[in-house]
Amino acid sequence: MTSIKTALTSVAAAGIFAAATLGFGAASAIAEPPPPPPPPMQGEVPPDWAPPKPNEFFDGHPVVWYSGWGGRWGVWINGQFLTLSSNPVTNGG
């Protein structure tokens, strides 16, 4: 009788473990919707020594001045800055 109780206990424990592993009996997690996209990043006021603006728009995105890397014209796409001009200070990359 003891071996039957042990066997039933083992089978029940294995079944509960398998059900828990598969997610049965637990409250299902509902994913939160993604946050709204950030507003388009605005550029900075270009300094007097900045080269002329290459264009008003690039691929539907406004061309803006960004002072990073010595200052460049470019566009913000998906949170990353795509440069459209070279560094006016070093006249290069």
The average pLDDT score comes to: 74
C-alpha geometry = rod-shaped
Query: If strands are numbered along the chain, what order do they take across the biggest sheet?
Result: 3-4-5
Major sheet characteristics: 3 strands, antiparallel
What distance separates the N and C termini?
82 Å
- Total strands: the figure is 5
Helical fraction: 10-25%
Query: Hey, roughly how much beta strand do the residues contain?
Result: 15-25%
Broad structural category? alpha+beta
Q: How many domains make up the coordinates?
A: 1
SS summary, helix count: 1
Radius of gyration: 30 Å
Low-confidence segments: none
What does this structure look like?
The strands form two sheets. A three-stranded antiparallel sheet has the order 3-4-5, with no helix packed on it. The protein has a two-stranded antiparallel sheet with strand order 1-2. It has one domain (2-31, 38-83). The longest helix has 21 residues, at 2-22. β3 (64-66) and β4 (72-77) form a beta hairpin. The termini are far apart. The protein has one helix at residues 2-22, and strands at residues 57-58, 61-62, 64-66, 72-77, 80-83. It has 93 residues and is an alpha+beta fold. It is rod-shaped, with a radius of gyration of 30 Å.
What are the SSEs and their pairings?
Layout: H1 2-22, E1 57-58, E2 61-62, E3 64-66, E4 72-77, E5 80-83
Antiparallel strand pairs: 1-2, 3-4, 4-5
